[in-house]
Protein 1
Amino acid sequence: MNIHEYQAKQLLAQYGVAIPATEVCDTADAARKIAEQLIAKGAELIAVKSQIHAGGRGKGTFKSGFQGGVKLCRTAEDVYEKAKAMLGNVLVTKQTGPEGRLVSKLIIAAAPEIEKELYLAVLLDRSSSRPVVMASTEGGMDIEEVAARTPEKIIKESIDPALGMMPYQARKIAAALGLKGDLIGQGAKLLLGVYKTWWESDASLVEINPLCIVRTREGKETLLAVDAKFSVDDNALYRHPNIQAMRDLAEEAPLEIEASKFSLNYIKLDGSIACLVNGAGLAMATMDIIQHFGASPANFLDVGGGASQDQVAAAFKIILQDPNVKGILVNIFGGIMDCNVIATGIVAAVKETGLKLPLVVRLEGNNVEAGRKTLAESGLTIISGGSMADAAQKVVKAVA
């Protein structure tokens, strides 16, 4: 689950990470009022930042034609005008796709005097099964670009999960980022706070880009987490009701929300052949083989290792709400799962929905003969696939 920038900053602040004074609003009038208060306190520049679950906001374009989802303003009136142009409009960035995201909230904050932009993230390194802290002196850029152009500028520090991040590791990273003097201690403290936020929140990613060296009004250099991205492991949300309460359903696809109600892993894609599969690895392989035979998958849908008849029926209903779907491929390997339970669910779902689209089913594994018999005796037009390749070819041909 992703959360907004302002919510990520709230969590980071709880663990001692320095962030700019930030307020959130959902009207242009409220934005102007916040800006007036900040200017009265001495702020010279005010940042107006669209809140959507996507990066690249500053370079994005609103469908109204207004350019940029992040703006710097010098007057409260300018803040008002920029807020009015953003709120209630759809922002398109590299990460949103052409459909974009509706902006319903803004961050209004005093923009600090930035001297240097850095990059910092904590994530799970699946190859080593350990947390890894990534940092770079090239802040403000996509880390993928840095990796492609100047990979030597990416600092990686593996963390022993039994010990957590040690102070010497934090100081080591701070030094590698070129921090000197008082900034070494500040950087170490901030790094430890970011890691603790990641660990205790069961996050999959905490990214601060940019992490900035800023100069205060008194002329002192300090570190601030100017931006923040936060993703939480869905499987751990039951342990964090405070984070679960931050979920913004308006940022999620309606069909994905519906699927989550039945504990189904569903992601909508752009193709025409829907997939219903048990197991993420098999689901990925199923999408690949559809592509291999010349078509495109309409979704990723993993019903899990022990799906019930009700979950199968729900999966069919969700699939059929996608108008791009022209055919369905069910690919089940019964390890834990009973193939006959799946077959019974398929028959019930087809009858309930009045399915008219081509349906190809490949069953293999536990109680497969009973499952095949249930399908054969159903009286429904269901195409049987003998193997993954056979099933994929049949559904591609049926749709074509």
Note: The first helix runs from residue 5 to 14.
Protein 2
Amino acid sequence: MVSDRGLVREVAWSEVAPWLILFRVVSLAFDPRKLVLAAAGIVLTWGGWYGVADLFSGSSRTDVKEQVGFYRTWLGDTPSPGTTSPAAGASSPAGESENFAVAAVRSAVRVISDVPVRLSRPFRDLFREDASLTGIAMSVLCALWALAVWSLFGGAITRIAAVQLTQEQRYGLVSAVRYAIRKWPSYFAAPLFPFAFVIGAMALTSLAGLVAQPSAGFVVTAIFWPVVLGIALLLVILLAALLVGWPLMFACVSVEGQDAFDAFHRLHAYVYQRAFQFLFYTVVAAVLGTLGWLVAWLLGEGVLYVAAWSTSWGSDAVRDAEIFSLSQLDTVGNAATAGGKVISFWTGLVQLLVLAFGYGYFWTAATAIYLLLRRDTDGMPLDNVYLETPVQPQPLPKIVADDKGVPVMAREEGEHEHIGEDAPPEGGTPTA
């Protein structure tokens, strides 16, 4: 008799290598619902930042001028490997093709890394050494605007991703937006918790600065300098976790359905207790995101090129060159005409959706990393998520009186009632 003892019938990869869930993030980031939400968030963020930059454009401060330039050109400064042309693949020598490939990879890396860097720019500007009061005011407005926008759209994206990654179910766009609106205060307040501690600590350390103004006070400040260093250590611990892990707060609210305080607590617990796992998951997600964005960019460029190329078969050489120029959003030829503006609009929309992939991937990857860190720290299964399943109240049965006045439960519709009659025997008929 042949024994099959020791044969491996099936490998539970979710238990052996749970981080493989990150590979699903790339395909999930192409979800049209996430692309629409991310694109809307990008446009609204840029619009708000542009408006704030206009308010402070008259300032002569160096830090303010730098911020105005960044916020005005944020959306237009999108990394791109280059432009395509009708003969790009036919006449480019090997060296140029290699340079293009290197530029494409560098651009993809920059896009993926720029998502958290750009969104956190206003918060980081608050800690600039040369920050003026005007610059701080501008940074606060831009930070609050970005946080308000992505508390809605980032919250909706992470909610969709949470249900997809845990339950493998479809979660509607309207349901995600409703959830994000209901939980918007938690999304908005979660990253502000550490800043509340920072403000309180700064109020204490500022007293040391006031005391140090006279010479005698400077000696007193020097004596209590270890206390200042201790407060600074606390601030570094708080801000370091926030700097690298703030997207996990949004994922926590979407997965757990809890408040901002729970997200704040879990952030520090997961980041510091599972620092190496967090670093590993982040590196894997960054590599996969780079490959995913290259696919998204090639798809977008392919659509624009094929549209221009196919149209060129029915046009002359002059119009052909103009169409290809418009497909790259160049303001040459007839780009200023009504037709050029319309084509440029649709071309810009395609490129916006390509850029939106990076933001959709960012929030989806943050959700997957949160699930993995929660599993490593709390032992929680990956398929555990808060679901809104309101219990529909069941109506109480209707009570009626029989012919003798005894209350009885009414029968369901379609069933025969035999009031005043004996119950029929099995297979028989009722008797009078």
Note: Confidence is low (pLDDT under 50) at residues 81-97, 330-335, 414-432.
